[in-house]
């Protein structure tokens, strides 16, 4: 696949919940880099997220009620598969990702060396607040113990899937646990997986919108419960 | 002195009465749920049995002595408390998994609605 053709059959999936302030800018910067198929999942936003995203040129799917990150990613991936995408990239709507990273992110898939690529903020941790770095490591260790896949940034929102990988991965969790669930699915379906370093842009806005430490505990508790119950 | 004794006794009766009334209330709720088709006959029998047992134990505490002796637990009431705890843990687990399932179903529903409503429009625009 040539890289131009890849760009055309590439769909960007962007979950969004009350992001009217930034989503327009995020979409515009992706368009500027040549990514045209941008699928926004408006996850029951109460603000003008949908209108802003549509105006910026995205294809918008709206959940009637808020379902959380996992629910929105599942819908986005389903919509991308419906639209015959060959590569699916998940991209956060809050502006913390750099569109220029996508090219590097999809390279292992184009080269057929990987089925799933995660953009790791920790291979190049400049700019990430220390407390988050520590939290992330704890998460990665637990993710490894539970699912047997080692990642340096299991909670990263920038990921790329080949079409066949996206078809195999089953997302069941609704909320933030989804990031770990994706790792679990990579282990379960034995997909080839790699990480590439990405740049994280920590603005005040994205810091406020990220996971709080409290949330991390909730995710942990849920993951452990799940593991015990299966 | 005498007055204190009397009020303690009354206090015990009031507690008994509360437990019995609540148990009857719980059974009646279960019956209503059965009649409306929200509960299966097995669930109804289970809850009725459980609450009847609670009434029996509250009124005649001596009946717990036999199972306690059989299981090697000192006091009769303790048997009830142990089983009560096990049951509570189990029902918490059941409720947790049920809520998980409901959450997943709601998500599937939201997804279907989103894909149907907006998918249609997307095709028209294209």
Set down the secondary structure blueprint.
The complex is a heterodimer of chains A (230) and B (126).
Chain A (H helix, E strand, L loop, with lengths): L2 H6 L1 E7 L6 H10 L5 E6 L5 H7 L3 E5 L5 H14 L4 E4 L10 H10 L5 E5 L9 H18 L11 E4 H6 L9 H11 L4 E5 L6 H6 L3 H17 L1
Parallel strand pairs in A: 1-2, 1-4, 2-3, 5-7
Antiparallel strand pairs in A: 4-6, 5-6
Helix pairs in contact in A: 6-10
Chain B lengths: L1 H34 L5 H19 L5 H7 L4 H50 L1
Helix pairs in contact in B: 1-2, 3-4
Which sheet architecture does the biggest sheet of chain A show? 7 strands, mixed
Rounded to the nearest angstrom, the distance between the terminal CA atoms of chain A is 40 Å
Largest sheet of chain B: none
- The stretches of 5 or more residues of chain A where confidence is low (pLDDT under 50) are none
Per CATH, the architecture of chain A is Alpha-Beta Complex
| Name of the level-1 CATH class of chain A | Alpha Beta
Helix segment tally of chain B: 4
Net shape of chain A: globular
**Helical fraction of chain B:** over 70%
Helix share bin of chain A: 40-55%
Distance between the termini of chain B: 90 Å
Strand content of chain A: 15-25%
Spatial strand arrangement across the major sheet of chain A: 3-2-1-4-6-5-7
Q: Which value, in Å, is the CA radius of gyration of chain A?
A: 16 Å
The DSSP helix count of chain A reads 10
Decide which structural class fits the backbone of chain A: alpha/beta
> How would you spell out the order of helices and strands of chain A?
HEHEHEHEHEHEHHEHH
Rg of chain B (C-alpha, Å): 24 Å
Strand proportion of chain B, as a percent range, falls in under 5%
């Amino acid at each position: 696949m040539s890289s131009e053709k890849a760009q055309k059959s590439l769909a960007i999936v962007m979950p969004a919940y009350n992001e009217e302030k930034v989503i327009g800018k995020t979409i515009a910067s992706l368009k500027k880099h040549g990514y045209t198929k941008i699928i926004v999942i408006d996850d029951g936003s109460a603000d003008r997220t949908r209108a802003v995203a549509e105006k910026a040129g995205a294809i918008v799917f709206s959940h009637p009620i808020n379902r959380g990150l996992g629910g929105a990613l599942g819908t986005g991936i389903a919509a991308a598969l419906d639209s015959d995408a060959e590569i699916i990239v998940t991209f956060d709507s809050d502006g913390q990702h750099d569109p220029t990273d996508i090219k590097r992110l999809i390279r292992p898939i184009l080269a057929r060396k990987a089925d799933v690529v995660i953009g790791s903020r920790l291979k190049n941790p400049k700019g990430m607040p220390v407390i988050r770095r520590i939290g992330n490591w704890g998460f990665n260790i637990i993710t490894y113990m539970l699912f047997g896949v080692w990642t340096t940034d299991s909670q990263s929102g920038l990921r790329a899937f080949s079409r066949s990988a996206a078809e195999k991965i089953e997302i069941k969790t609704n909320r933030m646990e989804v990031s770990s669930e994706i790792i679990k699915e990579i282990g379960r379906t034995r997909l080839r997986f790699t990480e590439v370093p990405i740049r994280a842009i920590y603005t005040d806005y994205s810091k406020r919108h990220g996971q709080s430490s409290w949330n991390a505990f909730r995710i942990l508790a849920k993951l452990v419960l799940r593991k015990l119950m299966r | 002195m005498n007055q204190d004794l009397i009020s303690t006794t009354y206090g015990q009766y009031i507690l008994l009465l509360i437990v019995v009334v609540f148990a009857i209330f719980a059974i009646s709720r279960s019956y209503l749920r059965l009649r409306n088709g929200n509960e299966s006959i097995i669930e109804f029998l289970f809850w009725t049995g459980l609450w009847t047992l609670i009434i029996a134990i509250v009124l005649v505490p001596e009946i717990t002595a036999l199972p306690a002796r059989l299981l090697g637990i000192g006091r009769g009431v303790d048997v009830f408390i142990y089983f009560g705890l096990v049951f509570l843990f189990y029902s918490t687990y059941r409720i947790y998994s049920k809520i998980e399932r409901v959450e997943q179903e709601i998500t599937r529903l939201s997804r279907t609605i989103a894909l149907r409503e907006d998918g249609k429009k997307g095709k028209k625009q294209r």
